[in-house]
Amino acid sequence: MQKLITLMLCILFSTLGFSQEKKIEQKKDTTKLEEVVIKTRRKLSSYRQEKTLSSIDDYLEKANNVTMIKRGNYAWEPTINNMVSDRLVVTIDGMQIFGACTDKMDPITSYVDVSNLEKVTVGSGQEGTENGHCVGGGIDLQLPTSKFNESGLKTSADLGYETNGNFFATGLDLEYAGKKFFISADGIFRTSENYDAGNNLEVLYSQFQKYNISLQSGYKFSKTHNIDANIIYDRATDVGYPALPMDVSLAEALITSLTHYYKPEDKALKALETKLYFNTITHIMDDSKRPDVPIRMDMPGWSDTFGFYSKADVLKGKHHFKFNLNGFYNKSLAEMTMFSNNPNEPDMFMYTWPDIRTLYSGLFVKDNWHFADGKSLSSSVRLGYHSNRIAKEVGVESLQIFHPDIDDQQNRFLISLASSYTIKKEHSNIAFGLGYGERAPSVSEGYGFFLFNSFDNYDYIGNPNLKNEKALETNFSISKTYDKFKIGLESSYFYIMDYIIGDIAQNVSSMTIGANGVRVYTALDNASIFDVYVNSTYNISDSFYVNGTVSYNYGKGSNGENLPLIRPFSYFAELNYNKPKFNIALQLDGNGNQSNYSSFYGENETASYAVLNLNLGNAFYGEKGRTILKYGIENILDAKYSTYADWNNIPRQGRNFYINLSYIFP
Questions:
Q1: C-beta separation of 41 from 64 below 8 A
Q2: Which of 23, 384, 430, 450 is most enclosed, with most CB atoms within 10 A?
Q3: Residue 117 gets which letter from DSSP?
Q4: Are strands 137-142 and 119-124 parallel, antiparallel or unpaired?
Q5: What integer pLDDT is reported at residue 49 of this predicted model?
Q6: What percent of the chain is helix, strand and coil (3-state, nearest 5)?
């Protein structure tokens, strides 16, 4: 019966997709997330969003070219264009922040919540280089700016519950806005027990607990000058990772910034924004709650970053210029202690990141030239100086075992170029772009020491002598509107040179008990990644419409092997009915069989799947505020499945009933 329903819905919706736009805006909802500027497969309107208490991971997964790698029920790692976080630049309000976990248990997106943010910007490829160098793209999680609107005191409260995992979330927001002074405080708490996969299979070590508190204040000196101060404190404890051999006892971040805004009147310079910031992250992995481990280990890590940027917007005739001068200094340190089971043997200690100091400074310039009606040419360049230094002498000595000729410091010059030509007409849009970009190796790729990767069961060694990874990119998109029907196609191709990936080191013993061996980071001559998305929407009436998307992705290296973590054929379809105070949507989400998997890099085949979801919403308006109620069922048929992005094939959640209640005053 399940297969029959899935087949019928696939036939009905497989050719339908959601309209593709480069910038989609979301008005403010109860989660305070006002705007999402992403290439997305469905619009994230505040009223239609499935859950008002969705995590930022749920929001990001709505984008066509974004996938979240799941190692558990918390802190998913974002990928763009089938490229993992090493090839991306992820920032919070333009601030560089680096995780403190060698196993990527703490992506930058895990240290904020939707309650902190005003909008999220996702840029594909070299479109994402405003805040730093990347190959795959960039994500900027943007904080709200001060609101001197004299609206007085506002408050909102949120409650959410989900049956699967006994998940509970609550949030509170307080805001005061005057003529010259603004202050806002919010907090959110989330907790979950182990969730159940399909057929009531409990997924052990999938629990977590997290709270996030933020405070923002602003003062307006004059019509043209004001300042903002922001503090975010995020703390997660007892976080289980069922796909990994270790859990997390603490993931903690303090993120601070001070920003000055200058907005002159009637000048070519429209805005000048200057920010100073500091953030510190502490991350502690441990296996104390695992009943059977070959040897006990503790793996703490720390990351501290100081930085600045100064951004300017300039309008000159038909040209819109953007400038960003930025820089940062980061310290990344991680260590491992292995506790011997034999009291007569000493414990073993080593640095897995030997106190790596990174200094960067760069300049970004973009010109959007509207040279004719509906026609524009956008061009950008980013130039940067990137320097790494190993502060721990023992780190140099350890890495010299594998790389005898290394220096304790590496200096690099990075460049990014991009250009896009766009034609916009009343019923059609066409865009074509080219790009070239470079990135430096990440701390793990350059300096990691015996980092265990449970995906392929190998220990990894960094390589400070790696060249910059370089990518040539081309992209194309087109959309057409025919009365009530809109269809779009978007495609991109990346040719990546000196593609960084691990290669097996012969005759080297692993450090981790049970590991298959050791891989040292090296570079393939080249690799190719291709993706295409077809999206469309049909408005049956003013209140009833259907939308969806289908996609195909491909990736292969110059060694003839498939690249790992490449999305297989996928599809999404949705039936929607919307009224001013009520909405309902039935969704079908699925992937085809992952036939082009990469066994060489530890990947195995994942079967096809299809999942049905139902979500509903009601809005109630009164004299003293408004109430938003969201409720629904995820995975209605309780399918047991894993996707290609589920680390070590951990199964996804089974059937889940949820309800979110939000109250906003006034």
A1: yes
A2: 384
A3: -
A4: antiparallel
A5: 63
A6: 10, 55, 35
Please enumerate, as own/partner, the contacts of 631-637 that have beta carbons within 8 Å and a separation of 24 or more.
Answer: 631/657, 631/658, 631/659, 631/660, 632/50, 632/657, 632/658, 633/657, 633/658, 634/164, 634/658, 635/198, 635/611, 636/612, 637/2, 637/5, 637/611, 637/612
Place of tokens 């410091």: 409
Distance CA 431, CA 325 (A): 28
Which among 335, 248, 340 is positioned nearest to 299, based on CA atoms? 335
The number of beta carbons lying within 10 Å of the beta carbon of residue 393 is 11
Terminal Cα distance for the chain, rounded: 48
Average pLDDT of the chain, as a whole number:
90
The residues near 222 (Cβ < 8 Å, ≥ 6 apart) are: none
Query: Which two three-digit tokens encode residue 361?
Result: 């400074």
- In the chain (666 residues long), the average pLDDT of successive 10-residue segments reads 39 34 34 42 43 84 89 95 96 96 95 88 94 96 86 91 96 93 95 96 97 96 94 97 95 98 92 97 94 88 98 95 98 93 84 96 97 94 97 91 92 97 94 97 96 94 96 96 94 98 91 91 97 95 93 95 95 93 94 92 93 94 89 96 95 96 89
Question: Is 354:346 a contact under the CB 8 Å cutoff?
Answer: no
* pTM of the complete model: 0.92
Distance CA 459, CA 326 (A): 35
Q: Label residue 346 exposed, middle or buried (CB < 10 Å: 0-12, 13-18, 19+).
A: exposed
Element (H, E) at 481: strand 469-482
What phi and psi, each to the nearest 5 degrees, are found at residue 464? -65, -15
Strands 609-622 and 582-591: antiparallel
For residue 5, the model assigns a pLDDT of 37
Those residues with Cβ within 8 angstroms of residue 490's Cβ, 6 or more apart along the chain or in another chain: 20, 39, 64, 475, 476, 477, 532, 533, 535
Report the pLDDT value the prediction gives residue 344, as an integer from 0 to 100: 80
For 403, other C-beta atoms within 10 Å of its C-beta total 16
Q: How far apart are CA 408 and CA 388, in angstroms?
A: 8
Give the CA dihedral 16, 532, 141, 498, nearest 10 degrees: 170
Length of the chain: 666
Neighbours of 600 (CB within 10 A): 15
Distance, in Å, from the CA atom of 123 to the CA atom of 129, rounded to the nearest integer, reads 8
Neighbour-count burial for 264-275, b at 16+ CB within 10 Å, e otherwise:
eeeeeeeebbbb
pLDDT reported for residue 345: 81
Query: What's 363-428 look like in SS3?
Result: EEEEEEEEEECCEEEEEEEEEEEEEEEECCHHHHHHHCCCCCCCCCEEEEEEEEEEEEEEEECCCE
Instruction: Identify the burial level of 342 via C-beta atoms within 10 angstroms of its C-beta, where 0-12 means exposed, 13-18 middle and 19 or more buried.
Output: exposed
The reported pLDDT for the residue numbered 395 is 87
Find the largest Cα–Cα distance for the chain. Answer: 80
Whole-number Å distance between alpha carbons of 26 and 35? 4
DSSP annotation of 647 reads G
- Judged on CB neighbours under 10 Å (0-12, 13-18, 19+), 414 is buried
Amino acid at 582: F
Residue 168 burial (CB < 10 Å; 0-12/13-18/19+)?
Answer: middle
